[in-house]
Request: fold
Amino acid sequence: MAGRLANKVALLTGGASGLGLASARLMAAEGAKVVIADVQRDRGNAAAAEIGHGALFIELDVTDEAGWTRAVDTVVERHGKLNILLNSAGIAAPDGSIEDVTLAQFRCMMAINAEGTFLGCKNAVRVMKANGEPCSIVNISSVAGLVSGWQMAAYSPSKGAVRLLTKSVALHCARQGYDIRCNSVHPAFIDTPMVQEGIDADPDPKKAMQRLRRMVPMGKIGEPNDIGYMVLYLASDESKFTTGAEMVVDGGCTAM
Reply:
């Protein structure tokens, strides 16, 4: 039986680990031809080998405009088209209050989280608009792109930018008559290497994990597949009337 993404080609940034890798696994299982893009060469090659089904790894720094052009063109040369882009590459640290964060740190956060997503959307639209098939761009934002905190002077603005960029891309594609949808996903705390690094850096990792769980109304942090299944829905034609939307997967955090 054909999968939910049969005959579709997907490019996923940050695909070597965390949310990107979880999404890549699910997409491949549902029939997509998967291309992982990441700066982590060894992890990326290992992920592609593990996923199988002809999965490909491309080394990509999402802040590199020429690198984005090469990556997207490589996907089209290899598979003839691009149907799905997941912008999942991102960083969360260093961060702090407005008095603590340096301009260099702020610019780094914006370059990877916001500008990297901008370049991905720009290059995806460039090739998607001509392929004559339904296409989907999914941008990973955060609950921090909806609400902020006193120690999020860099991360929250970068994820807020992703949220509103998504809406602009969605409206542009609709106005131009392109069959391209663009939506954002807003996770809370998810059990990924990035979150685990923050926990491990705490003087008391066990208490740090307990604090995170207490911050979530459901009393637990999420699993990568909790986000992966939302990405899968948005990537599939099941979401054909959904664009410019904010899909919140946060265990109830933003309901408070």
